[in-house]
Each structure stands twice: as structure tokens, then as C-alpha cells.
Task: structure prediction
Amino acid sequence: MSKMNAYRQTAVTTASREQILIMLYEGAIKQLRKASECCQTKDLAGKGVAVGKAHDIINELSNSLDFKVGGDIAKNLERLYAFMVEQIIQGNLNNDPTRFDAARKLLENLLDGWKGAIEQLKTNKAGT
Result:
């Protein structure tokens, strides 16, 4: 195992649930950006790899939803994730980078929201 892979594995195994959520969002955003770039440069192999990784990450986010705790928020996130997957599939089939960009922008907005919520949680815990 390379030093970088060992570092990444350690980072994931020692991360909090919140940190893992942020890493997943950042990873999906990175892969969708790459898919869009590959689509524009006609790098079909690179696009395929990036699409596969982004799709896997979004599926993992969807599969990790807790509907008992999350209620309507979890249901809405599930719908958003399904929409993103559809955008990725259509972007891949039609070589349409705007579909990847649409899914990426949604993830970026959600990431900003999660970062704010996590920061608020930390602030509330510190004040308790």
C-alpha cells in the first residue's frame, strides 16, 4: 500500500460521521467536475471512471439515509439523490456535461448546508 493510500485509509477510519459525510460530498463533486471536463475533451474512458465513482458515492449517500431520524428531510434527500443519479446517467449517455454540472451544483449547495449544520452543532455543543 502506498503512503498516500495508507494516509487516506487512516483519514477515513479515524473520521467522525460528519467528516465522512463531507468527504463523500467533496469526492462526488470532484468526480462530477472531472466527468464534465472529460466529456468536453472527449476522454470517454476518463468520463466513465469519474461517472462510476460519482454514481457510487451518491448511492452510498442515499443508502445511508436514516428515515426514522431524518423524516421528511431524509425523504427529500432521497429524491434529490435519485434526481442526481438520473442526471449523471443522462449526462453519460448523451455526453452532456451540463447534466454533470447540474448534479454537481446540487451537491455543492447541499455541502454548504451540511457544513453550516455541522458548525451549528459544534457551536451548540460548546455552549452546553
User: Anything to note?
Assistant: The chain has a mean pLDDT of 89.
